[in-house]
Amino acid sequence: MGFYRKPRGKDAAFRRVLPVVVVTIFAVLFVIFLLNTTTSDPHREIWSSNRVGEVELVKYNLSSFNVKPRLPKQNKLSIALQKKNQLPPRNLDLFPSLAKDHTIIVLYVHNRPQYLQVVVQSLSKVEGIGETLLIVSHDGYFEGMNKIIESIRFCQVKQIFAPYSPHLFQDSFPGSSAGDCKDKDDPLLKNCQGNADQYGNHRSPKIISLKHHWWWMMNTVWDSLEESRHHSGHILFIEEDHFIFPNAYRSIQLLTALKPKKCPNCYAANLAPSDVTSKGEQWDAMIAEKMSNVGYAFNRTVWRKIHSKARDFCFFDDYNWDITMWATIFPSFGGPVYSLRGPRRSAAHFGKCGLHQGQGERNACIDNGEVNVELDDIDKVVNIKPDWKVHVIRRQEGYKAGFKGWGGWGDDRDRQLCLDFSYMYHYRDNT
Ligand SMILES: *[C@@H]1O[C@H](CO)[C@@H](O)[C@H](O)[C@H]1NC(C)=O
Ligand SMILES: *[C@@H]1O[C@H](CO)[C@@H](O)[C@H](O)[C@H]1NC(C)=O
Predict the structure, then answer these.
(1) Ligand nearest the Cα atom of residue 232
(2) Assuming Cys at both sites, which of 37, 54, 119, 197 could form a disulfide with 407, CB separation 3.0 to 4.6 Å?
(3) Rounded to an integer, what distance in angstroms lies between the CA atom of residue 379 and that of residue 382?
(4) GO: which molecular function terms (predicted)?
(5) pLDDT at residue 61 is higher than 90
(6) What's the mean per-residue pLDDT of the chain?
């Protein structure tokens, strides 16, 4: 078609045909649009479409934020910890400022000090870590965990504590309370409180704490904490059983910088493959696949999109945050949700040696406070080349739309608390 050629020296003629050209372009786009929407192959992916960009269009349903959160009554510890969350980061004397384009790191933990010790040790060797802020989010209050975090001297550190963690409440919700149904109790026969999940089981505070913590932490980091609520870049999330390689920080910075150009359909960047037992393909290519729960980084636009699905997140009957995301949130985005990563992992999930939970000892495990991760020299520096192509893994095993959930999340009180976490920083009391 003529308009692809530059009409050099024929400006007047070009101006005359311009309306025709514009109309033609719109007609062509419209036909493409019709073809896209009328083809019914669900596995077809339209790479040219700017689906990820659509997240910009997400608007809040403001009326839903006018529901006043009904958070549980706090005890002394819960109130004290919430106050602690306002303290400034530590190590400001050693690291008075953050680098311009830093990626905040959030480490979320429960109570495995031997694991945390290993993770912190690995973080201390990460190139560039001194440029950023490390936020440690605690589910429960444990001295052994605090001691390890307080010993950190390699970057700014801010500790936050989930004030509604079930671990802080001994005899009331979100902990267990006297009148609660247990296991498969019938509320009418036993005259107890609770709603069973889809498999007939009642809530178990220890188990539901993980999903609550993750959701509280996401809402708090993105929408409340002074140190991160204005952050315009990516935030990297890691857990207390993720060994972090020395090249992890530089790699995630490179991947997030390459993401818009190399993988427009990628919502996130990852430090490790979605198969936690894999060390990566070791190809000369970057890989786009479903988001892994080990070392994932995304930005505020993506958070807004996730947050707009709060109701789906909070009502899905599965106590795992990651399965909830894969089975209900990501599929609702209306297109493939990929994450960009390198061909070698920069973080390794580890478990206790000798326990066979689908992850062999050949991969990574901890024994007497030591992790047996092999670190080759190539893993100590950035090993991703910006000119590599992106290999896309389109059809992947694992949890996806249609999975009904493992249960454990059937109690109305948990669903309401989760919703309250979504609204608590947005509700404006106009009375
Ligand atoms: C907005 O939220 C309110 C309250 O949750 C609901 O009643 C209403 O239908 C929602 N509106 C839209 C357009 O989704
Ligand atoms: C955040 O990431 C998404 C997905 O990669 C991208 O479409 C969007 O433009 C980014 N937003 C900002 C503010 O950089």
Answers:
(1) 2
(2) 197
(3) 7
(4) alpha-1,6-mannosylglycoprotein 2-beta-N-acetylglucosaminyltransferase activity; metal ion binding
(5) no
(6) 86
The answer on whether 307 is annotated among ligand-binding residues is no
Q: How far is the CA of 67 from the centre of ligand 2 (A)?
A: 30
- Read off the tokens for 130: 């001194």
Cα dihedral 128, 342, 324, 115 sign: negative
From the CA of 224, how far away is ligand 2's center (Å)?
A: 20
Q: Residue 349, annotated ligand binder?
A: yes
Secondary structure of residue 252 in the 3-state scheme: helix
Residue 426 annotated as binding? no
Q: Tens digits of per-residue pLDDT, 132-171?
A: 999 999 999 999 999 999 999 999 999 999 999 999 999 9
Distances (CA, A) of 213 to 37, 66, 219, 270, 321: 39, 23, 10, 21, 9
What residues contact residue 241 under an 8 Å CB cut-off, 6+ apart? 112, 115, 119, 349, 350, 351
Helix (H, G, I), strand (E, B) or coil at 216: helix
Q: For the chain, which domains are there?
A: 74-355+367-423 (3.90.550.10)
Ligand 1 pocket by Cβ (under 6 Å)? 61, 63-64
Q: Which residues line ligand 2 (CB under 6 A)?
A: 52-53, 259, 266-267, 299, 301-302
Task: Report pLDDT for 363.
Answer: 79
Q: Are 237 and 348 in contact (CB under 8 A)?
A: no
- Atom 9, ligand 2: which residue's CA is nearest? 53
Lowest mean pLDDT among 64-68, 265-269, 291-295: 64-68
Contact 199, 407 (CB under 8 A): yes
